[in-house]
Amino acid sequence: MSITTVPLRPIEKGTLTKLWVGVFVLLAAAAAFAWYSTARPIAMNGSSEDFLNWNGGQSGVVTTDSGLQYKILEAGDEAGSPGPGAGVIVNYEGRLLDGAVFDAAEQQPITLDSVVPGWSEGIQLMSRGARYRFWLPPAIGYGENGRPGTPIGPDAVMVFDVELLEFISREELLQLQMQQMQQQGGLPEGLAPPGQ
């Protein structure tokens, strides 16, 4: 039986330094991945404030003075925005943080003075054709009582995906709603929409 000897090459200068730098970078990447992968579940299962603090740091999310958070999903035509009390026609879906949808509609006419403050504020940031995502903190949503009889519980953060199709005056919107009710047979006979 014979033994073969293999000569060892000397370690090049700087190799150990490169090795330790590589180990440090790998550990830093692992720590960042662990923090990021646990931050979202902690925020999702924590309080409304925990979630909003985490969400406010996400890419593209803007937080207003009132606490409303929004993200532009698609920019609109930049030809103005609806004002307070305006009438809007929107497509939207409202859901809770757990993904449960509590409301949705297409081509829905709404007056901005008939919705929660956060929703009204968010719509006024949009231009025609825009699509936004809103996160409404409880203070500008349904607050500490939630909305009894619905899935919206106390201190719930509501998430809305909204597309602004059109905005018109409050009076024009009310007239449109009256015409729709009349066409659907919901308006008592002889009662005409305003302005007729």
TrEMBL record:
Keywords in alphabetical order: Isomerase, Membrane, Rotamase, Transmembrane, Transmembrane helix
Cellular component GO terms held in the UniProt record: cytoplasm
Gene Ontology MF term list: peptidyl-prolyl cis-trans isomerase activity
Transmembrane segments: 20-38
Reactions accelerated catalytically: [protein]-peptidylproline (omega=180) = [protein]-peptidylproline (omega=0)
GO biological process, one term: protein folding
Domain PPIase FKBP-type: start-end pairs: 85-168
Signal peptide residue numbers: none
Top EC class for this record: isomerase
EC numbers on record: 5.2.1.8
Family, similarity comment: Belongs to the FKBP-type PPIase family.
Protein name: Peptidyl-prolyl cis-trans isomerase
Species per Swiss-Prot/TrEMBL record: Parasphingopyxis lamellibrachiae
